[in-house]
Design a protein that fits this description.
Layout (H helix, E strand, L loop, with lengths): L1 H6 L23 H4 L12 H4 L4 H24 L1
Length: about 80
Amino acid sequence: KSFRDMFGDLNIADHTLTREPKGYEKDNPAIKYLKLKSFVALQSLSDSELTSKDLLPKLMIRFEAIQPLIHFLNRSLAE
């Protein structure tokens, strides 16, 4: 939930297959994510945020929010 609140959805049209990957059915509950070519999480920071004393704590909050995605992707590569 914190990831979605902070970064929005992973589904970016430029990074999505037009059809489901070979071997997967169109009605697969995870098809939206199986069609992704890459996983992109973006959030803009203003110049004032980048030069602020609070930059490090703000970055840490973002890194903590993205950590479950990184663990999920790494786990799939290890198997």
